[in-house]
Write a structure and sequence with these properties.
The chain is α+β, with helices and mostly antiparallel strands. The protein has helices spanning 67-85, 101-120, 130-138, 145-155, 165-188, and strands at 7-8, 29-32, 37-47, 50-60, 89-93, 124-128.
Length: 189
């Protein structure tokens, strides 16, 4: 098969825009969102421009945990997911301007843990801005959540929208990364 096909990816995202991990295992792409609510999704990159939906959902961390406990949980859960699924790459939503300084600090802390885990597991990290993801999926860099959900459902040939938003966002990042990899592969060939 051609390079980049039949690969799976793990992607993370959160209520506060965060990250994705892309992984390759059993021809599946798993998208997982991190923060204090973890959204995840699993898709398979089948062929050029073709992906298949496998699974998605959310994992909640308790609001009663300290920041250190939450970050430890992110590390532990992420290491487990990577170990079980043997990812090849990690893609993160690029950290950029935040209106709320209280929000950016925990996001940056969790992002640091995720990048450390990726490094520990020898995964290359890729980053995409929200506008890149939106433009890639919808053709509009300022698309709203509903537009992203519609695009994810259409691309994955689903009869209904993926909910909650975190799971849909994780899938959107995984799809975006897959498309960027396809274009990169075409250019290098």
């Amino acid at each position: 098969s051609e390079p980049g096909f039949n690969q799976s990816y793990l992607a993370w995202f959160s209520l506060v825009p965060l990250f994705i991990i892309l992984r390759s295992c059993s021809n599946q792409i798993q998208a997982i969102l991190t923060g204090f609510i973890f959204g995840f999704g699993l898709i398979r990159h089948k062929a050029l421009g073709e992906v298949e939906y496998l699974n998605s959902g959310v994992i909640h961390t308790s609001k009663y945990l300290t920041m250190g406990q939450r970050l430890s949980m992110v590390r532990q859960d992420l290491r487990t997911l990577i170990t079980e699924n043997e990812p090849m790459e990690m893609a993160l939503e690029a950290l950029f301007y935040f209106k709320n300084a209280k929000t950016i600090i925990p996001v940056a802390q969790a992002r640091g843990v995720i990048i450390e885990v990726a490094n520990f597991k020898n995964l290359e990290v890729f980053e995409y801005t929200p506008s890149q993801i939106k433009l890639n999926l919808t053709g509009n860099g300022k698309a709203v959540k509903y537009d992203i959900q519609m695009a994810v459902a259409r691309i994955l040939n689903l009869a209904s929208l993926i909910t909650p938003d975190d799971a849909s966002d994780a899938l959107a990042i995984a799809i975006c990364h897959t498309r960027f990899k396809e274009v990169s592969s075409r250019i290098s060939n």
